[in-house]
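S2.1 Query sequence (Precorrin-6Y C5,15-methyltransferase (Decarboxylating) subunit CbiT)
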Amino acid sequence: MKWIKDEKFIRGNIPMTKFDIRALTIVLLSIEEGDILLDIGAGTGSISIEGALQGAEVWAVEKEEEGIELIKKNSEKFKVDIKIIEGQAPDSIPHIKFNKCFIGGSGGKLEDIFDYLEKYLEREGIVCANFVTLKNLNQFIELLEKYNYKDIEARLVQTAKISSVGLMKGNNPIFLVKGVKR
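Output structure tokens follow.
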């Protein structure tokens, strides 16, 4: 497996899923050759690019112009093909089947996204999301239960990295949640 360090990505003012969280997210999604991954709220494209490097066909949804440009630049840099959907989920997403879905940003439309997934996420498909707030975490878990997902897992992950002068610099704690569609 090839994993990309954070400093290798072209960055801007758009949030990016950090290395440790990104690696764990890809593992929770169980990305394999031939998967079709939908990355909602793709930001810089870090999850999309790591998914493509694992062999997935990737569709990245992003509404921010800066994010769209960063996804284009990063996909060129890492020589992967990412199908970029400019707009807000779920309204802008094409009506095609996916077997893996990552939600990095929902724009307050989690329920609408789950309505979309009900039709277009394949049976036994995996949805995974990362949150920084309890409110969004709770809403996501409630939606997983409402839509009868199985194998629901939730984690709180706190990472820190040692600086060049020997101090630990902590990242925000992140909730990672996964469910499998029945």
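The helical segments are 19-29, 46-53, 65-77, 110-120, 134-146. The radius of gyration is 16 Å.
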